[in-house]
User: Fold this.
Amino acid sequence: MFEWSGETVYGTVTWLNLLIAGLCFFGALLLSKLISIQLRRSLKDKLSNEHRGMLIKIVSYSIMIIAILWIMPMIGLEPSGLMVAGGIVALAIGFASQSIIGNLISGLFLMGERPVKVGDLVEIAGNLGTVEDIQIISTAIRTLDGLYIRIPNETVFTSSITNFSANPVRRFELAVGISYADDADKAIAIIKDLAADHSLILINPPPQVFVDTLGDSSVDIIARFWSPTSEWYSVKMELLWQIKVAIEAEGIMIPFPQRVFWSGSGEKADLPDSID
Amino acid sequence: MTEKQDNSFNNLETSSWHYQLGQSFKALPWGPHRLPVKLTLDDALSLSLEKSGIGYLYRREDQSGSVEKFIQTGKGEIYLCPVEPFHQPAGISQHLLLKFEQPVLLEPRKSVTIYLTVPLEIAVVFAGKGIDEKVLDLFSFLKPKLTLYGTVKSGLVCRHWQSSIHQSIPHLNPLAEGILQLTIKNSGNRWAEVSQTVFSAQAMKIYYNQHLVAMQATMKINSELTAETAFIDEPLKTGMHKAPEQFSVKLLSLPGCMVMEEGY
Assistant:
């Protein structure tokens, strides 16, 4: 009944060989699908979407490559021959695609180290923006003015990265100058009251408000506040004006830069005629 | 708190209530309230849901401003209920840090039950026949403050609240604050000094009746730095209703209990 299976198709390859090879291929395909589904389910809460997708691709491609190398002898193709040819081709491709390989390896290291993740506000190689996507070759960020920038992973890996979203909270600083004639303690109390009244300024770490410098035109007060990382900038923008209004409402002056010229009584100064 | 008919809202089609805080009260304004309705709470906040064209206009006014929403629906009613205090500021925190005004010293392998106050928010919920309930609005009589529990690197941004320690249910403003019955158990071999506790929003089980909003929780001290907190899904008094949970454990796949690893 199955005599046809022993008939050769080409060389020493029989129909049976082709059938087994086909079954093995579809079996490997099925296995790779099943493992992908299982990985997607089991890693749902453990890995981010992009990292999970990347891992699933690597695993399923690896299964298929192993299956193909295993099937090749069944259909009369020797992998060793391919390897020699493949080695030469790989050498040529390797020279031609050094930067791609560099980016790829950098991408793998970035995925392991995870200095940034999608949604973080970062500064990479002088580009400030929100991370939109991390691929194996490149990282995409959206700048604050809406521009899309694709940065090769090798650049990301070798540059210094500032991640503004890495911590749940951050500190910001405001500087206020008041007149020398006014009471700095009163101004400090006003600023502390405003901070205590603001929902988004943290109680702990506590705010710091103090006289920082005695400047040319003003007594300079520094106010340092902690706020949730996602909110600090809006709080900063809002609070500086509130401080200005509250301080002036209490009769404290925020002076302009000024210089006092004093001409004295008009008498001739007692200066030496020359300096030896 | 007194419940009385408010003459300023004398309207044949509108039922209205006036609740004054700080006085003895008959009942809290949880409802249900048939539409149209006007409520004035503590002379500081008024809310109404009145017929407007083919639908209803929801309006809430307080010192900070007003909120208006047009609602296209048929017949229904609204009710108010206490909810977890994490909606203001929105999306920032899902943890509550309760700071004790006086620390509690607990000897090894002993437990103590204390009463604390907790901040509340109030949800205005629309309930119609045959349709899902819809939260129309969330508000609070308290100004929220935030704090950090743990380190700047890996800490938690928490809603901050400071409470005195009471040995029985204290008098409080029931529209703004609820009662937490907390059982602290020292499982360690050393004395424990507890000055704060942290809870996860995902686990908060709020029960209420016409006079009180209450919840129960446990705090198990494991070592000098770590403790575990969890809410108990049981009413403090019989006959209390369970408030709808705004933060579902199942939905977010987050643990219901909270492990405090940065001290207590």
